[in-house]
């Protein structure tokens, strides 16, 4: 059987995205070589300090055509507020990909690794191991609304959230399926149905309705405030957590922070039907404060690459083997070093990438 060539658009983006991307690619190429996968990677400089600085927008008008035929997007980070306001850079790149490519699932695994000091007292690996499934195309992320009486003391601002039955049901169904595939078969819905009195009780109802097809999965609904506290106090309660766009974004920063560093957290923005390319990126942003020092932790980028290979090969054969080898190499490096400063070490981004690639090649 001939192996297909996977065409990948690598977009480093802004800040530390430019530093972690080479390490992500280094490990991807090492895994591809070892497991016989063919990758055709094209690097694209669509970022605030590159394309935007020259053309006044984050990407060319024909960005979608340029990406046609691409199997996946490997993305670093977006945001360079010194020159481009954050909402302009985010809406001009990442959110365009998520929406136009209907990447309605944002999958964000959270896991405490052996060898990583946990900021939560007494927690050990196994206590924190859950999956955040974030709705990724609607919800609180809208540009619907406006300002009235601007600049006066009567100024009013309104911004709408949008939840559709189509949007909620498909992410809930995906989350129930994910929970079903795990040993504990437990799903938590992040809600706030006491305070947000229309849309959140509606989410509760949609979860009940979709959940009828999953009698083997236990469903637990928790208000986002106490759920956040339990991420810190009782993380072992969680298995799969499904949340709206904003709640999911916040939870998937908080979760990794409880595992020692957000520098480990990967994500997969999926179009599960594979009609459009999916996008794989670290959860962290561009971190302008540490950019240029070669100290950013590249593991989130590298782990995102492993998720990409797994998705591209539908979790089969060489792709699954490559994924597993990368995750194993990450586990080894976290247990034995080297470590970047976010993990208490003084190793560089490059050193970590080289160490992981070396283990993958072995
Ligand atoms: N690599 C992720 C990234 O660049 N994040 C910047 C950010 O602010 N993202 C918001 C979001 O994921 O919704």
Question: In short, what is this structure?
Answer:
Belongs to the isocitrate and isopropylmalate dehydrogenases family. This protein has 362 residues and is α/β, with parallel strands linked by helices. The protein has helices at residues 17-35, 48-55, 63-66, 86-92, 94-100, 165-180, 199-211, 224-233, 245-257, 299-312, 317-336, 349-361, and strands at 5-13, 38-43, 72-77, 105-111, 129-135, 145-148, 156-159, 186-191, 218-223, 240-243, 266-270, 278-282.
Overall geometric form: globular
Instruction: Give the neighbour order of strands across the main sheet.
Output: 2-1-3-12-11-4-5-10-8-9
Which ligands, by name, code or SMILES, are bound? glycylglycylglycine
Q: What's the number of structural domains?
A: 2
Query: Uncertain regions: pLDDT < 50 for 5+ in a row?
Result: none
- H and E order: EHEHHEHHEEEEHEHEHEHEEHHH
Structural class of the secondary structure composition? alpha/beta
CATH class of the largest domain: Alpha Beta
Q: How many strands appear in the DSSP assignment?
A: 12
* Rg (CA only): 20 Å
CATH superfamily heading of the largest domain:
Isopropylmalate Dehydrogenase
- What can be said about the biggest beta sheet? 10 strands, mixed
Level of helix content?
Answer: 25-40%
**Terminal CA distance:** 25 Å
CATH level 3 topology of the largest domain: Isopropylmalate Dehydrogenase
Beta content comes to 15-25%
Total helices: the number is 12
Architecture of the largest domain, CATH level 2? Answer: 3-Layer(aba) Sandwich
